[in-house]
Amino acid sequence: MNIRLFTIVGVIWLVVFAGTSSKRLYKENPPGTVYLSDSLYIDAMPIRVVDYLEFLTHIRNSYTPRLHDSIEKLPLYNLSSDIAYHLYDSLSMDTVFYKKMLTRTWKVLSSDKKVYDIDYHLTSSKYYNYPIVNVNYYQVFEYCRWRTDMVKIAYAVKSKTLKQRKKYPINFIYRQVKRTEWEKALAYYFEDVGKLSDNVNGLKRYNAPYAYVKNRKRKFYYDSENAAEYLDNEIVTTGFNWREKFGIGDVRYIYYQKPVDWVGFRCICEILPDTVNKPAIVEIKPKKKVKAKKIKTAKPKKKKGIKVENLRR
Q1: Number of neighbours of residue 133 by Cβ within 10 angstroms
Q2: Residue 271 CB contacts under 8 Å (≥ 6 apart), including other chains
Q3: Domain segments of the chain: what residues?
Q4: By CB atoms within 10 Å of each CB, which of 84, 93, 159, 209 scores lowest?
């Protein structure tokens, strides 16, 4: 377990933000995100059960990772709204992939026998706004890749011209959040973070995840007493504690490799360099100096006739 003093990190990030320009590169944030920097937009809330069910629905409709390359080659704008149906029609449902993407947990049957079955959060509508839990690294990776594909299609359908398309990011990916990015988000949206009420030195036993309720006054949703969240490199952030008496905060990190019922995740959208519409660099070679041609002057021809010396004789 690694415990870090949060105040120093927070002050550093706040100083950095104070010196940044308020001018944004894009009028709209990528779907579901809030601003973190000109190239980073983090999810406003953890991925909920209803969000993950949308991912599973697309897989049932024949979405597979094999479509990723085909989607990359689609036009950037003026795309037909029924393009997804045309893409999915060419493939049958990948049953193996679908089963791998289902989150699972241990269940106790009436006979006291334990079975590893589909997570009950996926089978009831009352859990729609709960953070999705019992996820593994592979499921998180594939969810982020699917989300990248869907947003690229949405931008291409929404934009009718190249000028309209340039209002949105051209090259981007959704991926897992890194530890430094998480600390930056906690500092930037500190007022929206739900803190733990007990002392950080005593590890709190986490309750079952609960629903996040949207609030117009709140931009960033993270409650330390709710589900913990996976970060990149199998790091889990397990809560934030603020002690008003001392004016400091602590954030916990642990390594966790297997799915558990108290860990969820969120994505971050990274804007990558635009290699699609990048203007070509034309190399202008210096003109060769033209050497002036020498004009040959004709030598005067000697006249034939009687020489002067001969006349004087």
Answers
A1: 25
A2: 25, 38, 39, 40, 41, 169, 171, 172
A3: 2-286
A4: 93
